[in-house]
Automatic annotation (TrEMBL):
Taxonomy, superkingdom: Bacteria
Entry similarity comment: Belongs to the CDP-alcohol phosphatidyltransferase class-I family.
Name of this protein: CDP-alcohol phosphatidyltransferase-like enzyme
One of the protein's GO biological processes: phospholipid biosynthetic process
Lineage of the organism: Bacteria, Bacillati, Actinomycetota, Actinomycetes, Glycomycetales
GO CC terms of this entry: membrane
Presence of the UniProt keyword Transferase in the record: yes
Keywords associated with the record: Membrane, Transferase, Transmembrane, Transmembrane helix
Transmembrane segments: 269-292, 298-315, 343-371, 454-486, 526-543, 549-568, 589-616, 644-677
Molecular function via GO: phosphotransferase activity, for other substituted phosphate groups
Organism: Stackebrandtia endophytica
Length: 695
């Protein structure tokens, strides 16, 4: 990673107070350089005022001088013009606790963003910003009005490789619009952050509450801020922050109350977050095996091990946040393992219950995995819709003084559905702000989060049996799905944001070879998918009843659903088009169920195929949610359309079971092989990531 340091204020040359454990006469600039070196950031370009240069340690850096903000921007444009390596743009007066700078530089994903702190403690030179949903959405300058300031950007901006073109375009626009003159008195770093925000660039607001950091413009601010940093027990703050403050009900009261002790124990035992994830996986696999025996003692022990697995599932993320030992693979593995463990437990419960004579156990497990996958897919792209809506409001010309967040919009016209959607949004935000009240816990619990799902499974298995556990689980899932779709549908209609109108929508849809052949057609996706889902549902009903025409009906339903290939080139600009990926998953899983029932595929094998498909699809979701996936290519996954064709082939008499078995093995091989090869390739090419936090 390379860095550009803007040394334009006297804070850069401010001396660290004496006595000091570091070199006598050390400066804020020198301290920042050493912090960057711990993360192997040694390719430095310094842009600064000539009068400041004699007092700065510039050895090994490319140095250019400038006399005003306009020159700063032009030199910054030149420094960022070439190369595809991620870049840091920093102010040389940034005085940061190690934990603060580590929160930005230890992020291994492709996110871009800036360090944001409290407006009360970040220094007079810090940049006022508005942040929401973890994103920087508006930036204030001497000209640009900030309607809802709630943070202060502190001179650290990270731009990852996918966003380099955004940075270059933003700086060019600043120069073209002569914004330096328009916002006279604002520095080049602030204007760069402003331009990125007003382009609608997705900028993460990195923040470490409780740790002091900011920009120091003079010696007095330097002394005060450095004293606060030295007085801060960063280890204690990280330990406090590693546990989520807004977790779900079960996790909050049954795990978070003591998990910090486990985090410290894991750290003393030198366990890595990935190692803790593997412990959680092993415990879940053993629990699933015990559930499969259906023995009363085994069910109770399995429930206990499942609780232990969930505990370590919480601890792995807490350990990563405490030690700042993040990795792209670790974040991906955590997300994949969370769902993989859960679906293994479904399978274990179903196997044991079926062996005990409960005929509807496997159908319950199959329905549960299908509902949960569709729910998670809609969750992923609904989150994308919300981010897109926020970024759309942030997008604005640099020549406008006001940002896009002025006013509440309560008087905006619209239909009853639009007004209701806006009211639901405000009500949701109100509940979220009323921490740990009955209304808050209702909102957190009605969506049936993972802790509550595992609690229902564990208690159901330990007290009753696997069949009851799965039945209770499915009821909770269906209630949560109905609740979330109803509320989000109204809020989407109010927002009216085009989520999938983007160049990479084929990736989000998981389109395959047939779509690429017929991409010129452009039918609206949701009506076509709705018809396809009705046809697939009818095929499931007919196949479940064992009618002789089940194969024919299922084949027809598959062809109807396959007409969704003609929707691929549609712009996907409708307010509900965020449902398209989830609808495609629902149709694909539903068709797999219908085909399996029609040709008499054993229930465990049918469930195994859905399990393999779910892992593959969660990897796709990880690209959106975690900005990380080791799978370099999805070509061998065949796309949803290619997989539908394979399912239709299984309807040929005499080969159905073999097709399902080979298809399941193929999808597992694609997922596991791609993950292993991709992870090894990344390990070979990526430099070792130093850890700046001593924990």
């Amino acid at each position: 990673m390379r860095a550009v340091l803007l040394a334009t204020t006297h804070g850069a040359e401010a001396l660290l107070p004496s006595p000091h454990p570091e070199v006598t006469g050390d400066t804020v600039f020198g301290r920042l350089r050493r912090q960057l070196a711990r993360f192997d950031v040694t390719d430095l370009t310094v842009i600064g005022r000539p009068e400041l240069m004699p007092g700065l340690p510039l050895e090994g850096a490319r140095v250019t001088t400038s006399t005003d903000v306009d020159s700063d921007l032009r030199l910054l444009s030149e420094a960022c013009a070439d190369g595809d390596e991620a870049i840091l743009v920093l102010t040389a007066d940034a005085l940061l606790a190690d934990t603060a700078i580590s929160s930005v530089l230890s992020d291994p994903t492709e996110r871009s963003g800036a360090l944001v702190g409290s407006p009360d403690h970040a220094g007079t030179a810090a940049t006022a910003v508005f942040r929401d949903r973890g994103l920087i959405l508006s930036v204030g300058t001497t000209f640009h009005h900030l309607s809802q300031p709630n943070g202060a950007a502190c001179g650290v901006l990270k731009i990852s490789t996918p966003y380099l073109s955004e940075l270059r375009a933003a700086v060019r626009q600043l120069i073209a619009d002569d914004v330096a003159e328009l916002a006279d008195g604002s520095d080049a770093w602030t204007l760069t952050l402003l331009a990125l925000a007003r382009r609608g660039t997705k900028l993460t607001a990195y923040s470490v509450p409780g740790v002091p950091y900011g920009r120091a413009v003079d010696q007095a601010e330097t002394d005060a801020l450095l004293t606060a940093i030295k007085d801060c027990d960063e280890d204690a703050v990280r330990l406090q922050l590693c546990v989520k403050a807004d977790d779900d009900l079960f996790a909050t009261y049954s795990i978070s109350s003591y998990s910090r002790h486990l985090v410290k124990l894991c750290q003393k035992l030198r366990l890595t977050p990935v190692g803790v994830t593997w412990i959680s996986i092993v415990l879940a696999v053993v629990a699933a095996g015990l559930f499969a025996t259906a023995d009363r003692t085994a069910l109770i022990v399995g429930a206990v091990l499942m609780y232990a697995s969930f505990t370590f599932d919480c601890v792995d993320g807490q350990l990563a946040r405490y030690t700042h030992r993040f990795s792209a693979f670790g974040g991906w593995l955590d997300m994949i393992a969370d769902r993989g463990k859960e679906y293994l437990l479904y399978g274990g419960l179903a196997f044991g219950a079926a062996a005990s004579g409960i005929a509807w156990a496997w159908p319950l497990a199959i329905a549960a995995i299908g509902v949960q996958v569709v729910r998670h897919m809609t969750d992923t792209w609904y989150g994308t819709m919300q981010d897109t809506a926020s970024l759309a409001k942030a997008t604005r010309s640099l020549l406008y003084a006001d940002d896009g967040f002025t006013g509440s919009g309560s008087g905006a016209p619209g239909s009853a559905a639009v007004r209701l959607g806006k009211k639901l949004g405000k009500l949701s935000a109100q509940f979220a702000s009323q921490r740990r009240t009955p209304a808050y816990w209702f909102k957190r619990t009605i969506v049936f989060p993972v802790g509550e799902r595992w609690l229902v499974m564990g208690l159901g298995a330990a007290i009753f049996d696997g069949g009851i556990a799965l039945a209770a689980l499915l009821v909770g899932q269906l209630i949560a799905l109905g609740y979330t779709l109803a509320g989000r549908g109204l809020r989407s209609w109010a927002a009216k944001v085009a989520v999938l109108a983007r160049p990479d929508k084929a990736t989000h849809r998981d389109d395959g070879p047939i779509v690429r052949l017929l991409r010129r057609a452009g039918l609206p996706p949701l009506p076509v998918l709705a018809i396809g889902l009705v046809a697939v549902t009818a095929a499931i009903v007919v196949s479940a009843q064992g009618f002789g025409i089940a194969r024919l009906i299922t084949a027809g339903a598959g062809l109807v659903f396959l007409t969704a290939v003609f929707t691929a080139s549609h712009r996907h600009a409708g307010p509900f088009d965020w449902l398209v990926p989830g609808a495609l998953r629902a149709g694909e899983y539903g068709l797999a169920i219908a085909c399996g029932l029609a040709v008499g595929v054993p229930m465990p094998l049918l469930y195994g195929l859905l399990f393999a498909l779910s892992l593959y699809h969660y990897d796709l979701a990880a690209r959106v949610d975690k900005a990380a996936s080791p799978l370099d290519s999805r070509e061998y996954g065949l796309g949803w359309d290619g997989r539908v064709v394979v399912l239709l082939i299984s309807l040929i008499p005499g080969i159905g079971v073999w097709v399902f078995a080979l298809f399941t093995a193929h999808m597992l091989l694609v997922f596991l092989g791609g993950a292993i090869l991709g992870s090894r390739a990344a390990a070979r090419t990526a430099a070792a990531r130093p850890v700046a936090v001593n924990a």
